[in-house]
């Protein structure tokens, strides 16, 4: 197998810097050596150059970070991003459900999946946990397109037997299609499956129970759903599930709270729910742009950290307003500050890469550009715009990273590499 080497400034944050003071790994002049799509060596150029003297070296134009990992995003909502006027439940009815009905058409699903994945790559995102729609073929469209692009994508047919006409399954069809998809896609490329009940309000008790049973029968899958996002949603859950201690307990009663559960949002959580999340090992995909856009609230980092919750970062497009994980990290900082918490830029980078990867149980494979991991990375350009260039002129690493998060977006991604190969290259700064 051929070996390639990349010389560049390298930065990764493999662990939560709150837990590990030496989590930040930075080589100002580094060498990343890749063979067969995997990192086989990484270090200072001066230390490695001699050992790899025979290997062709390409110098990369910017700051190399691990490919971003979007821990929660909806591909069928791509064309409904920036839909005006409503909070969650009305926004779903008015804008989202009509758009998702169109995914009954496989050709439409193929076209949107292709655009969506290319948009992820343009933004430096190489792995994601993705909602499709209720339609089995919406998963096939996404997985086929991801397989072609060699991306690491986890997804699974949405279960919603209480959905509107045209966007509703049954307990039996939900199970049969989920099982068929798991059989069809298991072990292919870099794909993974997630049992995906839309949220507690969209499924009957019987379907929630069956989702729990499906997970028990397939221990390698993830569970992916929404939790405690919006006050009206929480009130409706409380009114329907009167026996449950809280929203999380609804899922718990159906065996959906496990170490492989990823809950999007978690804005309105009791300390009891946080303690239970910690005990189970389940985690939260924090989605700040969505939470601001739908008026849902600000994620409580202080409470989450007191309970040592596992966290990742998600764009939640189309409620989220950008595919950029840099921009989303910048909004996470602002959401934290709204509650008088500080999110440092290295922790924000960890959330967008290794934190999300751990949440998705792919942290051994991606997220930190360590030896043995897959060589997915983005090349960031601190001079992507005149303002970024000016602001980062004499800045140290932390200031440059923070400026990229506050001022940067897709424009700051000069190149994206998947398994060591360039799959996106910006044409001009
Ligand atoms: N809760 C249930 N469905 C959705 C969705 O599509 N987007 C968001 N943000 N929350 C949800
Ligand atoms: Zn969502």
Explain this structure to me?
- The structure is a single chain.
- The protein has helices spanning 45-48, 88-101, 106-122, 136-149, 171-185, 205-217, 231-240, 247-253, 271-280, 288-293, 301-306, 325-338, 345-359, 386-391, 397-407, and strands at residues 3-13, 24-35, 38-44, 57-66, 68-74, 125-131, 152-155, 158-159, 192-197, 222-227, 261-265, 283-286, 310-313, 377-380, 413-418, 421-425.
- With 429 residues, it is of the alpha/beta class.
- It has two domains: 3-66 and 368-397 and 408-425, Urease, subunit C, domain 1 (Roll); 68-359, TIM Barrel.
- The strands form two sheets. Strands 5, 6, 7, 8, 9, 10, 11, 12 and 13 form a nine-stranded parallel sheet that branches. A seven-stranded mixed sheet has the order 3-2-1-4-14-15-16.
- α12 crosses α13.
- The longest helix is centred in the first third of the chain and has 17 residues, at 106-122.
- It is globular, with a radius of gyration of 21 Å.
- The two termini are 34 Å apart.
- The mean pLDDT is 98.
- Zinc ion (ZN) is lined by residues 72, 74, 226, 264, 316.
- Zinc ion (ZN) binds at residues 72, 74, 226, 264, 316.
State Rg. Answer: 21 Å
CATH H-level homologous superfamily name of the largest domain: Metal-dependent hydrolases
| Count of the separate structural domains | 2
On the 0-100 scale, what is the average pLDDT?
98
The total count of strands amounts to 16
> How far apart lie the N and C ends?
34 Å
Main sheet properties: 9 strands, parallel
Poorly predicted runs of 5 or more residues = none
Bound molecules: guanine, zinc ion
Organism: Novosphingobium album
Pfam families: Amidohydro_1
GO molecular function: guanine deaminase activity
Domain Amidohydrolase-related: 63-422
